[in-house]
Amino acid sequence: MNYHKPVLLQQSVEALLLNPKGTYVDCTFGGGGHSGLILKKLSPEGRLYAFDQDYDVTSNIIKDSRFTFIQQNFRYLKNSLRFYKVDSVDGILADLGVSSHQFDMPQRGFSTRFEGPLDMRMNNKQSLTAKDIINNYTEDQLSEIFYLYGELKQSKKISKEIVERRKENIIETTSDLKELFSKSIPAFKQNKFFAQLFQALRIEVNDELNALKELLTQSYEILKPGGVLVFISYHSLEDRLVKKFLKTGLFKGEPERDVFGNWDKPFDIPFSKAIVPNHEEIIENTRARSAKMRIAIKRNNG
Questions:
Q1: Could you give the CA distance from residue 20 to residue 17 in angstroms, rounded to a whole number?
Q2: What pTM value is reported for the model?
Q3: Domain pair 9-100+208-298 / 115-206, same fold
Q4: Which CATH number applies to 9-100+208-298: 3.40.50.150, 2.40.50.140, 3.40.430.10, 3.40.50.1220?
Q5: Which residues, 6+ apart, have CB-to-CB distance to 144 below 8 Å?
Q6: Would you say the C-alpha torsion 71, 72, 73, 79 has a positive or negative sign?
C-alpha cells in the first residue's frame, strides 16, 4: 500500500538540512517519506527524531541507528526530546494535516468519500470521537466549531439541524451526517460544504490548532540560532497561525516595538511568500494542491 506521498519532499528536506551532522525532528512521521530522505542526507554523526500519534504508522518505522521514533503528539515535543537528553536541535519539519492513509481508510472516518464511523481520531487510542461531538455537544458549541474551524457562515442553522435530527436517532456514520444535508445543500456546493464540515469536526476531535500553537512555541525554544523550521500546511487556519508566529513570535496582537518601530524578530524568513507545489506535483498528487510551505531560520537575538 502507498501509505502517503509526501508533498514538497525534495524542497522541504533541502531547506531543512543545512548541517548533515546535526540533530533534526520530523514532527509528522506518517509513512516515513520525509524521514527517509533526511536520513539519506544525514552524515553518520547526524540524528533524527520522529513523532507521530497514530498507532498505524508503527509498521513504517525505519531501522537506522541514527533514527528514534517517538509515539507522541508533537505538542509534547520539548518534554519528549528531553527524555532522550536532547535540549536543542538544528531543524524541525512538520507536514501538517491528514495523511493519505488516514483519508483512504473508511473506518477512520476522515473522508467524505466513504461510508464509515464518525471517528476522525489521529490518535486512535484517545476517547473523544466525531460521533461524541455530533451527538453530545450543545447547539451553541457545535455552531462555534463549525464557524471557527470550518468557516461555515450558516453554522447556527447547521447546528440546529443536527440537534433536531439526533433527537430522533443517534448520528453514527459519515453517511448519516451527509444525508442530513444532502437535500438542503445544492449539489454543486456539496463537496466544499462537506469538506468544511468534516474539517471542523476533525480539528475539534484532535485539538489541532492548540497542538500547533504548542509545537510552534516549543520549536522556537529548542531550535538553535541558525536552525531551520519548515512547516507545510493545508488550510488557511493553520497557515495563518504559522505565518503570524514566524513573523512576530505571537499568535495574535502585535509585538512591542522600540521608538524606531523595530522589534526583536524571532526568525529570518528567506521567502516572503509561501512555497507551493508546481503543476506537475499537483497532477501526480492531487492532495498537494492546497499545500503551503513556510521556511524560517532562527535569529540570534542574544
A1: 6
A2: 0.93
A3: no
A4: 3.40.50.150
A5: 155
A6: negative
Domain ranges, ordered by start, for the chain: 9-100+208-298, 115-206
pLDDT in tens, 258-286: 888 888 999 999 998 999 999 999 999 88
pLDDT at 103: 65
d(C-alpha 61, C-alpha 39), whole Å: 13
What is the pLDDT of the chain when averaged over all its residues? 93
Distance CA 9, CA 136 (A): 40
The CATH code belonging to domain 115-206 is 1.10.150.170
SS (H, E, C) 142-180: HHHHHHHHHCCCCHHHHHHHHHHHHHHCCCCEHHHHHHH
